[in-house]
Write the structure tokens for this entry.
Amino acid sequence: MTSDIDSLKNIPDGKPVRIFLPLKNGPEHFRTQCVYQKTTPPNFTLAFKPGALPVDEIDQEKTCIISVDMGGATTSLEAVIHKLSGPQSLDMTIQKSISHGQMREFFRVDATTNVISKSFHAEVFNTDSKPWSLKGYTVDISGSGILAVFSEEPPADAQVRLEIATPMADSEIVKVLAHRVRAQKMNDGLYEVAYHFDDITTEDRDKIIGCCLVIQRKMLQLKVQVKNQ
């Protein structure tokens, strides 16, 4: 715990961080930006923009993941919610710092690439449902799921097939089975849909995580270049 508290002490007061909040209905974590505020270790507070905190949907019995960019190195913490200290803040208690291997499920980057969502059960089990297929593009991607945009809302099937083009110059098609976590119609009439992977090979998961790492490094390099200018 001493080393974990030291990690907490190294985070500057007022530092913007990213949090992955567990939700009551589903395995997907809600990610958003917030601001770290020092209190007395092992406690700390996270402040959110108005409306950014889905208070009623948070599963307070599960742990949260906080990712902190320390200028080239990322510190990741696992913490529990001590209490909701208001509609826009959480009082937290650190449990431990976590390694990159443990962070695989939550490690996510902004990336735009092609994705196709297809029916699964209609073809496999010869149901009365008609096969369907929709083309879209990802907003972000991780080893455990994607957030994608489609021109119309995909059917809420129990399970779908996804064909994802890895966001690299030498793009490959990764095929996974997934289920829809949530869908939201946006102001422009498009649909934003979150999918969680149910069945993906270790090789394909590692391909996606490898792409995420490359994209993250490029973003860090860009950040350094902009700072130096």
